Amino acid sequence: MSQFSFESNTLITTDEDLLAFCEQVGKYDLLAIDTEFMREKTYYAKLCLIQVATPSMAVCIDPFCIKDLAPLLEILFHGQNVKIFHSARQDLEIFYDNWQKIPEPLFDTQVAATLLGYPDQIGYANLVQNLLDVHLDKTASRTDWSQRPLTDEQISYALDDVRYLVQLYPLMQKQLDEFGRLEWLDDDFNDLTNPKLYSKSPEESWKRVSGHGKLRAKQLVILKQLASWREETARLRDKPRKWIINDDILHAIIRQPPDTIEKLSRVRGINTSLVQKDGTEIVKLIATARDIPESKWPSIKPQVRLTPDEDALADIMMTYLKYIAAAEKISPSALATRKEIEKLARGEHDIPLLNGWRKQLAGDALIELLDGKRSLRVEKGKIRVE
Fold first, then answer.
1. Looking at the structure, do residues 229 and 190 belong to the same domain, yes or no?
2. Given 55, 73, 137, 198, which is the most exposed site by the fewest CB atoms within 10 A?
3. Which of 146, 170, 197 is the C-terminal boundary of a domain?
4. Are strands 82-85 and 106-108 parallel, antiparallel or unpaired?
5. Can you tell me whether residue 41 is helix, strand or coil?
6. Helices and strands counted in the chain (H then E)
């Protein structure tokens, strides 16, 4: 069996070396993980590289060359080592799309950073510079990772994405522990590793079409049929959904639904090849939608504009939220968004702010503000709470 040597290898391209590497890293308590992928021309992201680091080594694993990733996947999906990511959402989606599993247990440094006062969605390079005083070279960030061979510059760039993650993790853990916030992340990480987050149901894809909230119910039923077909077709052909039919053309079709191929071809902006290839199916789907009884039409909750009083109340609550966040040295966005605060102003309580640690830190205080048990005043240019 190969005895993998980190000193002489930073790129793993054989099954034998991967197995030897995994036998070494399986004993570590933590692993930093990152991926490089391409998705501009496909429905599913094309996995091009997997980077893995421990406190003593960092490597790139080439999935184009390796036939069996099972030894690595066993560690990622079943090993008890903590898997450290930065902005894990897209990486986790790739793992789910390929293997219907999510690496666990997980720690996301971008999510954790908001509890330490850093801005929402802080970039990896900025976090490394802030905490480690290291400036990362990002010249290879727009590279085509599907091309081979990989250059030394590409490999070095890819390794940087994990070797510093290993250093960030203990520093952030220590700071979070000092603030008493380490356990706060449990719920957020549980949400992040929930498979439902990455499951793309074709039947629900109409909700992801831009501008769907402005459509009438009888238009939504057609949109649901067409969007579901588009999602399935994009998946089967492994093409971006907008390459099948983009949102603007969907809206153009829905405004004046054609009942013949000829009428479909006259839709402004529609591609001739779409009409030739899929026109019959599109017209058939529109006819099917028209036969669906009104009781089964999709519906959306109408957006209710805030009254002037509610809008002003939301402004006051946002001010108080930012005041609490500043006092607690935490990013306001980690507590609640403006939309969630507007829901609270309308009397809706089904928001994350009123659950778990967010409720304890700020939610209860905002409820007391609404109930008149607290008030804000300005004294010498500073906000005071009574």
1. no
2. 137
3. 197
4. parallel
5. coil
6. 17, 8
